[in-house]
Specification:
mainly beta; 2 domains; 7-stranded mixed beta sheet; 18 strands; 13% helix; globular
Amino acid sequence: MRYASFEISGKPGYGIVRDDGVVDLGRRLKDHPTLKSLIAAGLPDIAAEAAAAPADYAEADISYLPPVTDPDHIWCLALNYVEHHSEVESAGRVQDLPKQPAVFARYIDSFAGHRRPLLHPGVSEQFDYEGELAVVIGKRGHRIEAADAFDHVAGYTILNDGSVRDWQFHTRQITPGKNFYRSGSIGPWFVPKGDIGDVYDLRIRTTLNGQVLQDGTTADMVHRIDRFIAYVSTFLPLNPGDILATGTPSGVGFSRKPPVWMKDGDTCEVSISGLGVLTNTVQTR
């Protein structure tokens, strides 16, 4: 099942994306005006029943939004793949592999939806890509034990943690370079966890203008999802619809010689097995 948020004729909605089109759940499930509301309700059976209805729109007619348009928290992991840590270390940016999850925050308006433009910052040429698996939280929890972590997962989506590298490295606080307006993307949809097999056996690939620049697997995570959930829920509760970005494999642009930066007119695609492809074209603001 592929749950997506979208706009149609300028109005927001959400529904199920099928091969034959899109079923609008928002107009059928009046008790759940947003996908976040439906996630909080545990994706009830009534949603699956509604998904069997005839398609309301062609998929080409909708404009994708981030799957959850109003998460309370977006937590991201830095340096969570060994080879990525090694390439950052070789560039002189870090030393030791993080013993604890290296967490930073992003905000929802720093993300665009599928097929919407990634906005080149203009104030920097160092606009980089980072393909990632993202976790969608389904159940609220505070100080969640790692053994119980997956009870709080609703599903998974794809995330491009677009980064403005010189702004990221102005100081030790990387927040500015990670939060330029619509510099990242997320989507196209989220897939319930029950539809995904082994979450640690997913292939992540990032291409820029068709060239494969990242090709990794979630098996190589340093801090796994259960550890990530336990860690961040220790200091703040996790809420339904929250997004946890689990880090990127090696192959990012700034570590290459010469560096590879995204520029106006480029097309960046991130694919993850079982989740689909997140596609965005770069546009200068």
